[in-house]
Amino acid sequence: MRRRDELLEKIRNRTAVVGVVGLGYVGLPFAVEKAKVGFRVLGVEQNPARADKVNRGENYIGDVRDEELRDLVARGLIHAQTDFARVPEMDVIVICVPTPLTKNLTPDLSYVEGVTREVAKRLRPGQLVSLESTTYPGTTEEVMLPILSSSGLKLEVDFFLAHSPERVDPGNKRYTTKNTTKVVGGVGPESLAVALAFYEQTIERVVPVSSAKAAELVKVFENTFRAVNIALVNELALLCDRMGLSVWEVLEAAFTKPFGIMPFWPGPGVGGHCIPLDPHYLEWKAKELNFNTHFIALAGEINRRMPEFVREKAFRVLNRLGVAPSRARVLVLGAAYKRDLADHRESPAVEVIRLLRAYGAEVAYHDPHVPSLRDVGLDLESVSLTADELRQSDLVVIATDHSAVDYGFVVAQARHVLDTRNATKGVAEGRERITLL
Hints:
By secondary structure, the protein is α/β, with parallel strands linked by helices. 40% of the residues lie in helices and 13% in strands.
């Protein structure tokens, strides 16, 4: 029996051992979905604290149900380790590691390359390797394949290689790993067939594309689409500020049109691992082909400018109140990049805090999900949201619109509020003390 057929049989009867490298926002929910249908999952998580938590059945990802993880660990269906020693036991190896940018906005594939080298040292016949990390078109075939081929094994005969970009939206209660359509591209038809069979075991709809490169482009385009449209409404916010109009009123009216438009909203910038970073992967790749992606570059420029605009508008408000910005106390509400999450990677709220402090303001912050900002180089811990804290602040800046915050209480107690998220939309009393982005 050919290697492909042996692997397909294991996948279809769910005796295949699934390896997941990286047990973060993508990897852990994926591991849980696979284990729920009977696959045995071996996780590789190089953060020892996280690996230990998984093995104790302790959940740290909001999109995973605590009781499901506990049950799967207790049944021996999920186990985590910090090394790659058990790669030979794995029939399918799914890679979910970070793909950051350098300070010069160029791709940093060190995590992908490092993991691929570790896998290549232990690669055996009959394995599928699938990359889920977002990256530029060509990574799977041009970067990973040569490393894996150094094992002496032959692609499409001994091992199979695919790209299936993650589509995780942290905090989304409607769309999960299971019911979010999955795109899959193989480095060859045999790889595609094996990868399709694997993903179809747990995901409701799987869409094949012609190549791994096409699948990679699908993902970076999706995030570029969002980045460009967010930049459009952010630029509209800058224009409305000059015109003395409310961008929120304009957009809410525009979005009543039942066709030809979809809602995007402005804010203090963009955050998380995807929107601020992924479009630059495509921009970088395009330059290799002597092609300039003007929309992407401009969108990035506008979105990166927004924290500075928030700082500028905050200081305008303070001056209007007769408070010198360098002597002001500012309370920032929210440090996470998105509502009701603890994730503050690339958070514009953090950048706003840095900018306010750089210009001399005394800054405190409150975030029920982010207790400390020491891991991003700020010697700050979340303060309690009390009436005294609000009254002692010259200005309150709403940077993240967490649903646990009582914005009516905030407005009632604060001297003035700068709302960058329209979180105070439902507050009727005290609107004269609210300035919108």
